[in-house]
Amino acid sequence: EDQVTQSPEALRLQEGESSSLNCSYTVSGLRGLFWYRQDPGKGPEFLFTLYSAGEEKEKERLKATLTKKESFLHITAPKPEDSATYLCAVQNGGYQKVTFGTGTKLQVIP
Amino acid sequence: ETGVTQTPRHLVMGMTNKKSLKCEQHLGHNAMYWYKQSAKKPLELMFVYSLEERVENNSVPSRFSPECPNSSHLFLHLHTLQPEDSALYLCASSQAEGHEQFFGPGTRLTVL
User: Fold this and answer.
1) B97: contact with A, CB 8 A cutoff
2) How far apart are CA B17 and CA A12, in angstroms?
3) pLDDT tens-digit profile of A32-88?
4) In a 3-state reduction of DSSP, which class is residue B26?
5) Residues from chain B contacting residue A44 (CB–CB below 8 Å)
6) Which strands sit side by side in the sheet containing B73-79, from one edge to the other?
């Protein structure tokens, strides 16, 4: 059975204090690993897709990396508007084989 | 309208009521999904439609009934729900298998 574990559950950072979120996964045949951002009361917003170990993608202050067992979401010099819950998901096989983690709730304090 | 829209945004219903959730995607995607999101739990995939054909998900109680009349619209019919069904119900769409999903804002459902 596919598994996704995200850590930490919650993270509190000072504005400008860089850090990383972790997504560890177990999947037979990874087709893609996805990062989403979810603000309170809203649906998840797509950030990145990673397909193979060694791949990296960047968007503004965020950088996602992938190894064979885990993915990191690096946040450089975060701002208060980066506060949200960050979700990781893996896809294995067909449409129904998508497994989400429980997320990391990030709070950036001014 | 752009992206994925859902109505209603909030719904309160009794255990004996029948209601429906509606989702519409304006992205030209081929697949649509229903998810349940409960506090402290990961998103739970309920149903998937690919090119208007349903992919079975046997773990979902029969009190939830999906309908996909065309590739842009998705419904979730609800009847005889239980209080534990209270959650945020999210609709999503994707271009194809293995692609990123785009989510709607969700319907916050409360079952009394």
Assistant:
1) yes
2) 42
3) 999 999 999 899 999 999 999 999 999 999 999 999 999 999 999 999 999 999 999
4) coil
5) 43, 90, 103
6) B4-7, B18-25, B73-79, B64-70
Does A31 contact B98 at a Cβ distance shorter than 8 Å?
Answer: yes
Contact A95 B48 (CB under 8 A): yes
Residues of A in contact with B55 (CB under 8 A): 94-96
Do residues A25 and A89 make contact, with C-beta atoms less than 8 angstroms apart? Answer: no
Cis before B8? omega within 30: yes
Task: Write out pLDDT tens, residues B41-68.
Answer: 999 999 999 877 887 676 899 999 999 9
- Name the amino acid, one letter, at A8: P
Sole residue written with tokens 């304090």: A109
Q: Does A31 touch chain B (CB under 8 A)?
A: yes
Strand partners, A12: A107
- The CA-CA-CA angle for residues A103, A67, A74, to 5°, reads 50
Interface test with B, best of A50, A98, A105 (most B CBs within 10 A): A98
